[in-house]
Structure prediction request, 651 residues.
Amino acid sequence: MYRLNYKWIDSEYYYDGDDLGAVIHHDKTVFKTWAPFATAVYLNLYLDGTGDNRIESLPMEQLDKGVWYVELLRNCDGEFYTYTFEYNHKRLEETIDIYAKACGVNGDRGAVVDFSTTNPKGWDETPSPECKNPCDAVIYECHVRDFSIDESSGVAYLYRGKFLGMCIGGTKCEGVSTCLDHLKELGITHVQLLPVEDYATVDEAHPEKEQYNWGYDPKNYNCLEGSYSTDPADPKCRIREFKQLVQTLHKNGIGVIMDVVYNHTYYTEKSAFERSFPYYYHRVTENGKFTNGSGCGNETASDHLMMRKFIIDSLKFWVKEYHIDGFRFDLMALHDIETVNTIRAELDKINNRILMYGEGWTGGESPIHADKLAYKWNSYQFGKVGLFNDNIRDSVKGGTFNPYDKGFVSGNRNAVATLKRGIVGSVPHHELHDAKEACWAFEPTQAINYCEAHDNNTLWDKLCICAKNDSEQIRIRMDKLSAAIVLLSQGVPFLQLGQDFLRTKPRRLKEGEKPNDINVFEENSYNSPDFTNAVRWDRKADYFEVFRYYKALIKLRKSSSLFRMSMKWEVEQKLSFWKKNDESFIIFSLFDDKESFVIAFNPYEDDRHFNLPDGEWYLCCDEDGGERDEPVSGTVCCPGIAAVVYKQKHS
Ligand code: CA
Prediction:
């Protein structure tokens, strides 16, 4: 094969219908697939998602624009299907439909599903929570299995590690609430799920095996992962149970964000894309070699119109069928800017409050010119789409690629200029002149502020390595100061599940391996066992004061729009840094007609004092998250390695 003439294909054969896949119309079922150069296409029907039980194989008919079609005069709800594509009279391997919306065990065959039979009770009457402005969100990144797989979750054995494990209230561990109740207690507004679309490397037929994956090994983009359901062999089971998860979170006022991995396929040549239309959906060199911008062996071609359409159709499906509230794009910089803006526009047509953000980097080199891709440095060209703020991340805790590197909270005095850029939401601010590379957001809504995510060491493990000579008490102060920075900065705060009780990812040493500072922690746990990844809820009881502090910060953030300004002009007018001789002791004010806040971040081990502006102030968040009712004025203290927040009401 050779590189195709994509421009010509897209101009001659672009199909804008919304009916690709299997669609049930009462007592008939229509199958449509796009393959302009195929010489024949067959629909194979099966009784089951696996095994030798073919019902029939039917030739499809070619329509305009490269669409192939067959219509069955029955409602195929519950039947399974695949396609076989023929090119130059040579049959390719049988494949699942790229547009399959349901599938059998391990996602090898599509399933025809009447989705109206999959809704939990009250589904259409359960409203999605409102999020007026992305900066109102507090995002909590959770892996479905990690959430409840450990016994300490208090979840019944059958539901541990499953979608349903996130739906159960009233669970406790050592007297503290866990799981769903924990989400409510902490006060986060959105859960961001690591990929729940069907992925490849966990064998759904053998849940008893020790196996694990984050899910960045995508197989079917419109199907759910089976290992999170209680019965992966029943295509409707995972659909019902995931809807139950969404509905439960919605009932509790929590939005659901999906982590979507359209940037590559796990199987490359053996992917459904290649078995449907070879060399169209992936990027290839002139010689037909797959390019590897993802670092996972290939990259998809969002710049090819039918691939772009595939992504958009898929996102619209998740929103409409599953009431999804937002999307986090893995390696978003592999998607071209035009695609990213088109996605935003298409989502806006459904609901302009659907959150959309992603990683502004790639995992390798793409053949597409860097100016055309959704890299962070092109941020102004897609200002309505958020980006992970690695600048604030690294300035808070130190670089992620050198475990010993320190950040602002652990004593690096060179991190201040970058950190201040993060505090203002990474938008221009007249008081800031340095660290220009950290000023990249079009509006504060674009900056997804974090210091811990699934990648790399957890914040706590990082502190255990880079601040190993400090006491645990000091490291806890560093952790809490990190949380204060992320939650009190302008932009959109993002936390990882368990960060609020010092999540750790212990690593099992190999035989004969001697423990050192670094190897006792797992920095890349993508396929590590539960031993590493499972959240231990007893830590919440052990470090309850840390949890309480995160909770207080979230409550404070929600209490005033000054912490959640969505426009750069507002930040410019309502945020001001104090001018001091010591730049490392950061103090800034937030103010409008109604109220003012003074926020201090002290990275030194010793206490620092400062004078409040005139009038009566109230301590609204001390180093432990506590508030005081008595007014104060004059000189106050910010304890060592801590944040304090004072508030004044204007009458
Ligand atoms: Ca799977």
User: Anything to note?
Assistant: The pocket of calcium ion is lined by residues 106-107, 198-199, 202, 204, 219, 225-226 (CB under 6 Å). The domain at 134-563 is CATH 3.20.20.80 (TIM Barrel).
